[in-house]
Specification:
The complex is a heterodimer. By secondary structure, chain A is mostly beta strands. In chain A, 12% of the residues lie in helices and 47% in strands. Chain A contains three helices and 13 strands; from the N terminus they run αββββββααβββββββ. Chain A has a 13-stranded antiparallel sheet with strand order 6-5-4-3-2-1-13-12-11-10-9-8-7. The longest helix of chain A is centred in the first third of the chain and has 14 residues. Chain A is globular, with a radius of gyration of 18 Å. Chain B is an alpha+beta fold. The radius of gyration of chain B is 22 Å and the shape is globular. The N terminus of chain B is likely disordered. Classes of the chains: A mainly beta, B alpha+beta. Chains A and B meet through strand 6 and strand 11 of A and helix 2, strand 11, helix 8, strand 16 and strand 17 of B.
């Protein structure tokens, strides 16, 4: 089962493949796979470039995002806030990083690294949910998403991913994934996020949610996929930290003053 | 407490008015706007559960219901925000009013569509209760017009400056904002020199070396960025907001003009802030240690402001200049420098308006700058209503400025020279 959804901000999307721990969940995920990728095109995907427009309607803010993915675990996201800033986050299979001219380069460590790495794992079309999760079970609190009745699955990633459990909502009638809840790990802290998937349409014979609404800290961001290219040649160097971005190894920052004296 | 943290807001309130509407129609628009504003406040504000707020809401709703005009409504809303007792709560007229105003100017040939952001080259400072020319930047319109350090600014266009009228109004910030705009646009200044003679100067604003800063519903303003090397090899940089463009320029200077500098002066006087994350970002360029610049506490999630230390970070001593016009992110930066002991603060206590906010556009077109979270500095204390207190309190006088001395810069230079000498002798002892 392969579901392609765009990658938003900090590892907010994933590609779901299922089997399952709970047999009922497995059956549902099997059905979902057939709906999303009836001809098995997902297996042929070696790379993808997704372009998105993102808006924060309340604040009148518009951004552009481009996500580059290449098998097995290469991922890069370019975020442009026109006239204000450009930012890049990447993972080359080993090192996760972030870069922009104002903040310089930074190598991700700890939970932040795990989180970004897991984002790259979720993008891999040859991995199934049962490969990366040690536990998938139904939760009784399903409910409606956008007025559509859904069941809720709680997915616990395998311990080696060191990533918190996330939840997905699937509508049993059409087997579409409508919602996901997970925690994004950033340098500033852990931020719970909710993503609603809408406008699910075929792209390259695979169903893709072309509109997503992510809510973090009560702020809603809407994104629309404007272009997807599959199997376009992407150089490995695309996923490396940009040159001229020397990074100081990160060490934990103290919480209180006085311990940080640098000069 | 006056809500003038973002001067842009003040200028808008002074300048723009909505087209006339019938009192009945206006009342409906005002009530919709009022209720939406409260919905946004209650959804995001970390202190929204304050019991007194619902009383304030109910009381003001009656007044809004009888509101008949734009001016009355804007005043009522901003007065109500004053009652909430938080900085960063500002109510603005619809953006379309700005556009209309801009279009009129364009039609009149006043500006061109692609006009660059521009500035007069004056750093206005409060000295002896007067708004004075604190600094005239090299090559600026002010220098060309013969304006001198220490001159008193009595008027900008039709706005009279009387700093003695209220100590709560950030006059420096207002003056600074009014002295920036579009390249080629003109500003008329009333100037009184040290001998008391008065004259009128007409300045044609010159490109400020920065760009327009426009983020969502926030009013657009001209970024200003100046730097120079002071005697003794001390790098001096001044900028009027904390946005990526300014911090990126600072980064570039480290490899070029600032290379080999013996000390660094970061002048954030009259800087009303910007994006919160730019405070630790700048911190990453003046210390190669990972530092905490404080915590942001939103309604649901606590967030940390951590620097991203860079190998190329400036290694010499740092002085940060602040005044009552330094607000918000500028205060976060100043406090972070102080708490982490990576530099010293010079000047006067900052504004004390340090909450996390954003601009929200309401369905009626009105805009609301509203508080999102609280800010707690790295030492556990708060800046809101207190300000960042300088390590070295220095106040300028009219006489000092007229004699060519900004006492705050002088004190910073003295400190940096002493510090550089100390570091140099320590280094010599370690490597004889």
């Amino acid at each position: 089962m392969r579901i392609f959804i765009g990658f938003l901000l900090t590892a907010l999307s994933f590609t779901v493949f299922a089997s399952g721990i709970d047999p009922e969940a497995l059956a549902l995920l099997d059905k979902m796979e057939k709906v999303y990728d009836p001809s098995g095109k997902g297996k042929e995907v070696k790379s993808k470039i997704v372009e998105m427009e993102m808006m924060i309607p309340g604040q009148n803010i518009k951004m552009n995002l481009t996500q580059y993915y290449k098998v097995p675990f290469n991922l890069k996201i370019k975020t442009r806030l026109p006239g204000i800033m450009e930012m890049e986050n990447g993972f080359d299979g080993k090192t996760a990083w972030e870069y922009n001219k104002a903040m310089g380069g930074r190598e991700l460590t700890g939970k932040e690294l795990d989180s970004f790495k897991f984002g790259a794992v979720l993008e891999n079309p040859s991995l199934k949910l049962q490969d990366i999760c040690s536990d998938i079970k139904f939760d009784k609190n399903g409910g409606k998403v956008d007025g559509v009745e859904c069941v809720k699955l709680i997915c616990t990633p395998k311990p080696e991913y060191n990533t918190a459990a996330f939840s997905v909502w699937i509508s049993p009638n059409d087997s579409l994934m409508r919602k996901m809840e997970m925690t994004s790990v950033t340098q500033m802290g852990e931020v719970p996020s909710v993503t609603i998937y809408r406008d699910i349409r075929k792209k390259n014979d695979i169903l893709v949610p072309c509109e997503q609404e992510v809510t973090m800290m009560n702020v809603s961001m809407k994104s629309i996929i404007t272009k997807i290219e599959f199997n376009k040649e992407i150089s490995d160097s695309e996923f490396k930290m940009p040159e001229g971005a020397p990074v100081t190894p990160t060490v934990p920052a103290p919480d209180a003053a006085g311990k940080n004296s640098a000069k | 407490m006056k809500k003038m943290s973002f001067l842009v807001s003040c200028i808008l309130l002074f300048t723009w008015r909505l087209p006339a509407a019938t009192p009945e129609n206006f009342c409906k628009i005002a009530l919709t706007t009022y209720n939406e504003s409260w919905d946004v406040i209650n959804k995001f504000n970390f202190a929204a559960d304050e019991k007194s707020w619902s009383k304030i809401r109910a009381e003001n709703e009656k007044k809004v219901a009888s509101c008949t005009g734009e001016e009355e409504f804007l005043k009522l809303m901003n007065d109500m925000f004053d009652q909430l007792g938080q900085s960063h709560m500002v109510f603005l007229p619809p953006e379309s009013v700005q556009y209309k105003s801009a279009i009129k100017k364009i039609a009149a040939g006043d500006i061109t569509k692609d006009a660059l952001p521009a500035d007069s080259g004056i750093l206005p400072l409060l000295a002896g209760g007067k708004i004075c020319v604190g600094k005239v930047f090299k090559g600026s319109a002010a220098e060309e017009a013969g304006i001198k350090q220490g001159d008193e600014i009595t008027r900008i266009d039709s706005f009279d400056f009387d700093a003695s009228a209220s100590a709560e109004i950030p006059w420096e910030l207002i003056a600074h904002k009014m002295l920036s705009g579009k390249a080629g646009s003109e500003v008329t200044l009333g100037i009184r020199n040290s001998s008391g003679s008065e004259k009128e100067c007409r300045l044609k604003l010159k490109p400020s070396g920065s760009r327009w800063i426009k983020l969502g519903a926030m009013p657009q303003f001209a970024g200003v960025f100046y730097y120079e090397i002071l005697p003794g090899g001390i790098a001096y940089v001044y900028f009027n907001s904390f946005f990526p463009d300014e911090i990126g320029k600072f980064n570039s200077l480290l490899d070029n003009e600032f290379k080999g500098a013996t000390g660094m002066i970061i002048d954030i006087r009259n800087n009303p802030g910007g994006m919160g994350i730019m405070a630790p970002a700048l911190g990453g360029w003046i210390s190669d240690k990972k530092l905490s610049f404080g915590d942001m506490k939103t309604k649901d999630v606590p967030l940390k402001l951590l620097s991203t230390p860079q190998k190329r970070a400036f290694k010499g001593p740092v002085a940060v200049l602040i005044n009552s016009g330094s607000a918000s992110t500028a205060e976060v930066f100043a406090a972070g420098v102080q708490d982490n002991n990576i530099g010293k603060l010079f000047g006067e206590t900052s504004s004390g308006q340090c909450l996390i906010s954003f601009f929200h556009k309401l369905s009626t077109g009105y805009r609301l700058q509203t508080v999102f979270g609280d800010f707690v500095r790295a030492d556990g204390s708060r800046i809101e209503k207190k300000g960042a207190i300088p390590d070295f309190e220095v106040k300028n006088t009219r006489e000092s400025l007229s004699s060519g001395h900004d006492l705050v810069i002088d004190a910073a230079v003295k400190y940096l020279q002493e510090r550089a000498n100390l570091l140099s002798s320590e280094k010599a002892k370690q490597n004889p």
